[in-house]
Amino acid sequence: MIDAALIWSYLTQGSLIWLTATILAFVAGDWCFRRTGRAPWANPVMLAILIIGALLLGTGTPYTTYFEGAQFVHFLLGPATVCLALPLYLNLGHVRRAALPMIAALLAGSATAVVSALAIAWAMGVRGGVLASLAPKSATAPVAIGISQQLGGEPTLTAALVLLTGIIGAIAVTPMLNALGLTDWRARGFATGVAAHGVGTARALQVNETAGAFAGIGMALNAVLTGILAPLVLHLFQ
Predict the structure, then answer these.
(1) Helix axes 141-151, 209-236, angle to 10 degrees
(2) DSSP secondary structure, 98-147, as one string
(3) pTM value?
(4) Residue 8, SS3?
(5) Helix, strand, coil tally for the chain in percent (to 5)
(6) pLDDT in tens, 115-138
(7) Burial environment of residue 74 by CB neighbours within 10 A (0 to 12, 13 to 18, 19 or more)
(8) How buried is 236 (Cβ within 10 angstroms: 0-12 exposed, 13-18 middle, 19+ buried)?
(9) Are 172 and 40 in contact, with CB atoms under 8 Å apart?
């Protein structure tokens, strides 16, 4: 009789199993999300990460082995980021009418994200590559990883920080904006996209179509501005 551990070892050498595991983990997370009535704390991305993390830990599988199999999902982040131009184009009229408030919000949100992260980390004694990895954590993953590499950071750490930022933002955004009494879906969506990139944008789309469109706009514009601000602000802390 063939040993089960030997079969598992053989299967994990192929790329398909980890790609399949990633998709199934997200489907399971999304099922839980729907069963809880789309509760913010049951974010499907967060649940999928917990499932995959538990699977890797339980099987003793190195992350590098997992990533080799699931990297097709990572590759799709690039085309998905390019597609962010679509909501910007479709809402060009709204953007023109609200250009000044959006520019002000973009500058405030992007600058706050970069400066606060670096200032807190620097005050706690963080230096070097780790500090550089923090600078772009509020930009969408493909952009943030590219910025981190250019700044001498650690792309893997940046990717983890981007995910944490997005998940926390997606969980906190709805109750926080409700508490602030903010009812304009354009403002709610734009703020979410600037602060919580792709994960927050996905959450905004689930809540309201207009909010989702403006979240996509905010995420795209913040990615561009972060690429400009992150090197400048990081230089002040070095």
Answers:
(1) 10
(2) THHHHHHHHHHHHHHHHHHHHHHHHHTT--HHHHHHHTTTTS-HHHHHHH
(3) 0.77
(4) helix
(5) 85, 0, 15
(6) 999 999 999 989 888 999 999 998
(7) middle
(8) exposed
(9) yes
